[in-house]
Amino acid sequence: MIHQQIVAPGAPDRTSAARQSACQGCRTAAPLPMAITMAFQPIVDVVSGKVFAYEALVRGAEGQGAGEVLSGVDPEMIYKFDQTCRVKAIELAGALFSPDDGAKLSINFMPNAVYEPTACLQASLAAARRARFDPRRLMFEFTEDERMTDVAHVRRIIDTYRASSFTTAIDDFGSGYAGLKLLADLQPDMLKLDMELIRGIDASTSRQAIVAAVVAMTQAMGIACIAEGIETQAELRTLKALGLRLCQGYLFARPQLASLPSIPATTFLC
Known about the structure:
By secondary structure, this protein is of the alpha/beta class. Helix content is 38%, strand content 19%.
């Protein structure tokens, strides 16, 4: 989960000249203000007890939080920053992930920083080859907290990623600029329910009704739901009863810098 307020210069303009300018900017932008790494947090299948994916969350090389990192990224750096984050996450995954368990690598991406879907994938694919990481294990999350300036362009991104066997997800659903219309227009593979819908759900009949309706709706659309921000066993019990099996939050593990956190077995005893 990443809340990104940087707006790419000329983001709504998808002309050939704008794309070429963005490509040049990605190659020639000034160095990022600080070295970055990633912290990893698991997304768990609470039925099988296995890790479905690890989300890569940007951090400074010395553990600085995402907010501090992002505060130093100027709009002119947006394309380079997005590509750098992707490559770093894939390189770390190649070193840390088991080649056999099938866990996905979930990367936050910025739709407004993707000027042309196929071209912007090349660095990620090259990084996957170098790291010997199966690119079919890549999952890309975009947050609806970032205003979609060109929904048709985002749809092209999703179609391109799906053709490459990547998984796509809307992050923080229910808290941002768009909701059901965005879901209908984009139809990603997965939907991450915002933590504000999850927090205290065991004691909130209104939250339970909303989540139950979203789960039923997404099942009918062939979209899988992920509940994020889970902190208590009571929340987990309620979510499982509502049909959620993919879960993320401090109850399972906090993000761990440049390594994969372990999950206590007792977490699943609810």
